Amino acid sequence: MSSETAITNTSRRVASIVAFTATGMLSGILTASSLAFLDALNPFAGAIFGIAIAIALSLWQRKWSAGRIIAFVASSVMAYFAAIWSPTLAIYVLRALANVDDRSVPEMFGPAMFSLAGFVGAFVIMLAVLLLFFKEKGRRVPARALLLALPGVLLGLISATASESVQEIVGHWFSPSASWGWKPEQFYSAYLIWQTGMGFVIAALLQQNAALSVSEQPLPMARSQMNLSVGGKIFVICVLAGTAVTGFFEGRAQYRKSQAYGRIEKPREPAPSTENLPQIRPRPIEQALILKAIGGYAESGAEFSRIPAQITYWDRDSPASHTTVPRVLYSIHYQKSGITSGSTPSVTAKVWEYPNAAWANYQLRSTPFGDPPILYSGQIKTVTKLGNPVLINALAGGPIPYVYWASTNRVIVLHYSGQEDDEFVRQYLDIYPSSL
């Protein structure tokens, strides 16, 4: 082989690495942007990466197969599904089988869980690449996919480490969400880092495969049959069936949500004036929240954030919107101690601080918490607890997931993921008496 040919091949290899890495980065940006209208737990957010990589591989091979691209997109959806739910399954197994104490369970958005998710997602993707595009056969294919998925562990670890920094960077362009529990921003680093890294892995580790070899002369795009092995056919059937089932349940959930929003009670009063509002002076977090165990629930993390003025929606799928003013949010999570099996009861306390009492009462009436259950008409009731009027929001016959009230220019919200515990209400009412 001449030196000129060697240089040409090297340039093509470099070009493939750059192209696939750039494709992964672009798909990561598009996936993060898709959370404006998709839930981060919706596995179809993974279709964007599948479409991008499938097109890139087809262009590089100069072979076009609609069936293969559809199968790869379905594989990407299933990879996303497996990645987001594998940490939950791992935690359940640790609690149920290994008898691990709650304090020893890895944090859901911590390095260990991100690494696991990165590995699981990478395994499904690499298995799809080997079976669909390289048409490999034999029992060694899953083993090779496992080996090629190992970089996914590192990418997941880097994503977890960089998560807060990525959230801060993105926060310059987008206002942080006020969602309960997980937040869409916590997924951004995984999209940007993992997808970019996997684009690099596909090009760097697999370019020597015969299926990716490219002629020295450019070839026109040609249609090709899938011609899969038995294992490849079984894989395609599984991912297509899994995607169909997932699509059915996602579609049903969206339909039910749209029906429920038809019953949402819209705010009927105009917003207070935004003129000459006093500036909110943040308080030390230990003054705003109770940083100790309450009723057998251990404190497991407190947060403080400033939220700028914005036009916000009740939910991504809801047409109702309203204007808000700058506010401060104090949040803390409490988790039941000593639970080693099943779901762990927890309580989240949030203290929203507004410029004045008028805005606090307006936000209270408008239920501005961005959580669908709290919006349903007819489920909000005023009750008296410990001599104070408070609001509760609950499904008929079910537990009370929310207790909330206004206290001058603040709104206090208690969110239960288990049975209601009035000890939380008592202690927070001691600090913030109801002004309802």
Poorly predicted runs: 176-181, 210-217, 262-267, 312-321, 368-377
Instruction: Give the tally of β-strands.
Output: 11
Indicate the percent of residues in helices: 40-55%
How many angstroms separate the termini?
Answer: 84 Å
Percentage of β-strand residues? 15-25%
Number of helices: 11
Give the integer mean of the pLDDT values.
77
Largest sheet: 7 strands, antiparallel
Derived from helix and strand composition plus strand pairing, the structural class reads alpha+beta
Order of helices and strands: HHEHHHHHEHHEEEEEHEEEEH
User: Could you give the order of strands across the largest sheet?
Assistant: 3-6-7-11-10-9-8
For the record, the count of structural domains works out to 2
* Spatial shape: elongated
Alpha-carbon Rg, integer: 26 Å
In short:
It is built from 11 helices and 11 strands. The chain has 436 residues and is α+β, with helices and mostly antiparallel strands.
